[in-house]
Amino acid sequence: MKNTIQLIQLFFLFSLSITFAQNSQRYRVHVDNVIPSKVNDYEVLAKKLADLAAENKEEKGWNMFVTDDHKYHAISPLNSMSELSLNPYANTLEKMGGDAFIKIFEKFDECYPSHGDYLLNLITTLSHMPVGMTNLIDGKDYRVNYLYYYEPKHSDKILELAESFKKLYESKGSKLHYRVYLSGFGNSESYLLVSFASENAEDFKKLVENSNKLLGEERIKLNDELEKYTFKIETRRGTMRRDLSYIPNK
Hints:
- The protein has 250 residues and is of the alpha+beta class.
- 40% of the residues lie in helices and 28% in strands.
- The protein is built from six helices and eight strands.
- The protein has helices at residues 2-19, 39-55, 90-96, 98-109, 155-172, 201-228; strands at residues 24-33, 62-67, 71-78, 115-123, 142-149, 178-183, 191-198, 232-246.
- Strands 1-3-2-8-5-7-6-4 form an eight-stranded antiparallel β-barrel.
- 23% of the residues are buried.
């Protein structure tokens, strides 16, 4: 029975990928669960790795998102599944040599007890981003992410509600912009992630208050409907760390 359920979930995730292929961007997310006492050591290594990638002009880059619970997420765009087998540090490895390169990651291993990878799919058609579909917004590196977990059998209803939310935000001209992601391979459960960007926590609070007044009762009704089809809601707060990121020059 467990294997059957896993196969159904895999088929569901594959079907979603096909459905949104033309209106989505897939991302690979590598997460390091850093020990609090090792944060400083980890960040020295992460900065060094980003600098080496820039120095050696690596083809693939990443944005670093750090949550308040010391989880470091390296988020990289993924154009095809075949890219998962590529070494994102190929130029650095060639220049440094294997032994020196491996030592860097041996030091990383001392900073966390576990780490892993999963995929996320940014769905542009469900996102409310009037100023442009970008992950990094000047002056707005603070993030609040809401994860709505749902059973695969409710996927159609979840997507329908996401479309209704976007229409409401657009029709009212809400200045509370957001991006919508769907969980992909590597996630044990299905969820819809809504990511908000702001200057800081206080700025986010003001944006939410103003937007809620603007959207009125219709937002409350949609939110109540959404909660009917979710079995768990998580809030993850954090900051985009540009100093630990590497963005290749186009």
